[in-house]
Amino acid sequence: MTHRTYSIGEASRLSGVSVRRLRFYSDQGLLPPAGRTESGYRVFTDSELVRLDLISCLRDAGLGLDAIREVLSKELSLTEALTLRLRAIEAEIAAQRRIAAALRTALRSPELTEADLRRIWTMTKLSRDERRSVVEAFYERVSDGVNIDPKWMRQMIEDSVPELPEDPTPAQCDAWIELSGMLNDPGFAANMRNNAKDIWDDATFDPKAWQTEGDAMLVKARDAIARGLEPASETGNALASEWLETSARLTGRRPDADFRIWLRAKYEQHDARAARYWELVAILRGQSPSSSPNREWLWIAAAMTHHLAE
After folding, report:
1. Residue 76 has pLDDT above 90, yes or no
2. Residue 74: which region, alpha, beta or left (left: phi > 0; alpha: psi -120 to 50)?
3. Which domain holds residue 166?
4. How many domains does one find in the chain?
């Protein structure tokens, strides 16, 4: 059977690929000509045009010449080649999203400095192990000089290390950038260390008892919120009184005037970023910020502030 032959100009018109690129593919060994004329010009057949279509498709998909050469020589299957390219594209998209998140965060800053931009840019590129190191360094600063239970601290670190997916959403990127800024803020670490010192340096402190009593109070606060009750309501006042007595009991103190003054100072000095911290962790986990117990604790804090001011 005789195959129709085409000059390089005809092959270019039929394929839409420039003559220059056809020569390039041919010189690279990707598209060997079917033969040559007596004058030495390349000639192609329908088989080469089909091969050219595949080369063009793979190039449009972003494959390099070496990968295309492996596909054409059967060293790499078409499925394997496209799978590799897809993974590369997905990684590139994820990287671009992280960069976009960094740019959004930078542009929100009223007085952006080069140091701020460098920090933001670096935070978006950290691996999970590197993000874990940032969290661990924060808790090391918080626990410095404080008698914190190592087991409790390890659990806090595990609960805080963000498990970002391969393709994080812009909200997750923004959350990590904001969280990393908090974790690297010496002032925030100092506030958390002062709070931890008041609790952990007390020999009577029982973290399990605090967890049990705290969970029970959260349930009551959640019910009050669902009923539309304000922290300054009669129910809020009753729950605040109950939590006052519980706090005194758990710290081995009496709910007297001195304890009320001490506790009121603690609530007034409370760093709002402590609540925001867990909202950001929830976002990084792909959850709603409201999935953290912040709403309930903020309601309790407001009830306590109102109760202690009386």
Report:
1. no
2. left
3. 120-309
4. 2
